[in-house]
Specification:
With 320 residues, the protein is mostly beta strands. Helix content is 15%, strand content 39%. It is built from seven helices and 20 strands. The strands form five sheets. Strands 14, 15, 16, 17, 18, 19 and 20 form a seven-stranded antiparallel sheet that branches. A six-stranded antiparallel sheet has the order 1-2-5-12-7-10. A three-stranded antiparallel sheet has the order 9-8-11, with no helix packed on it.
């Protein structure tokens, strides 16, 4: 199975912009495109192959036909035939709502879903752009409730200025929001369960306030102040630099200025490459596929070797 590219699934959002189209040439018919789902097994939003002999085949069909070859036996043992992560690029022209995600146990009980642990890699940020990540002090649930009633929640939140290359790991239960002017790559568990707790009193195109999930969120929130979100990583050239290693995914960064070879025969997991800068050609035992900034490639678990041909590229490598 050659390296696979998939058609992006574009999502119009109240807070979206036009950078996914203007910078990455994504297909868009609006000026409020917030997300490009690059690789998804989410029901109703399943990715479809865009290149080669398998063009027009859905990710679900591939998994059903070639489960072990595509996913890897260790992945199947943990997640069955469900693709376990969701890959996105996100363009926030406006602030996203303040939100959090439940853990696996709550998500299973309430929504028959996985929880949603995620990470962000900042690809571009306007001057002064920031994120909300966690609280700025330990907060009691009653204090949090009162802040919603008094419209003072923002006073309890922690703001982080961001620049290209900054990376953040968002645990389940951590309150967070992407700020206006931020363009990022997101890696997350396969889940679309979000508890929105504040939306700046904005109205949608029909003049309606968006739904809030105040009560659902109360026992899902981590109310303690934790400085565990900023990812520190080595950025050496032409080697695999570890970034995030959690139970749901592992992410490395490859900062390349020459061709790069990997033996991946013992990995027993698919590999995903998100290009966050430059361009390259990714080649395995069965073919090669080009990739450039803002594109994503899936390499099957059955691949033994991998060669990345480039003179300048920066790639996120994601495995299970």
């Amino acid at each position: 199975m050659y390296p696979l590219k998939f058609r992006p699934i574009m999502k119009d959002r109240l807070w979206g912009g036009d950078k996914l189209e203007s910078l990455f040439n994504k297909p868009s018919s609006t000026t409020t495109t917030g997300e490009s789902w690059e690789l998804s097994g989410v029901k109703g939003d399943v990715s479809v192959v865009a290149n080669g002999d398998l063009k027009n085949t859905s990710l679900v069909a591939l998994i059903n036909k070639y489960p072990a070859d595509l996913l890897g036996n260790s992945v199947i043992e943990r997640f069955g035939k469900e693709f376990p992560i969701l890959i996105k690029f996100i363009d926030a022209k406006q602030d996203l709502s303040i939100q959090l995600h439940p853990n696996d146990a709550l998500a299973k009980e309430r929504h028959n879903s996985f929880g949603k642990t995620e990470m962000w890699y900042i690809m571009d940020a306007d001057p002064g752009a920031d994120l909300i990540v966690g609280f700025n002090k330990d907060v009691e649930q009653d204090e949090y409730r009162a802040s919603l009633e008094n419209d003072t929640l923002l006073e309890l939140l922690n703001y982080e200025k961001v620049k290209e290359g900054d990376t953040f790991f968002i645990n389940t239960g951590k309150i967070h929001a992407i700020g206006a002017g931020v363009l990022l790559a997101e890696i997350q568990q396969t889940s679309d369960v979000t508890y929105r707790v504040f939306d700046f009193n904005r109205k949608d195109k029909n003049g309606n306030l968006r739904e809030l999930h105040t009560e659902l969120a109360l026992d899902a929130i981590d109310y303690t102040k934790k400085d565990d979100f900023k990812v520190s990583y080595s950025d050496k050239k032409n080697v695999v630099n570890g970034m995030v290693d959690c139970p749901y995914f592992k992410t490395n960064i490859l900062d390349l200025d020459k061709d790069f070879n990997q033996n991946i025969s013992q990995r027993d997991s698919f590999s995903i490459y998100m290009c966050v800068s430059g361009k390259a050609t990714i080649e395995n035992d069965h073919g090669c596929t080009s990739i450039q900034k803002g594109e994503t490639v899936l390499v099957a678990a059955a691949s033994n070797s991998l060669k990345i041909n480039t003179d300048k590229a920066r790639l996120l490598e994601i495995t299970i």
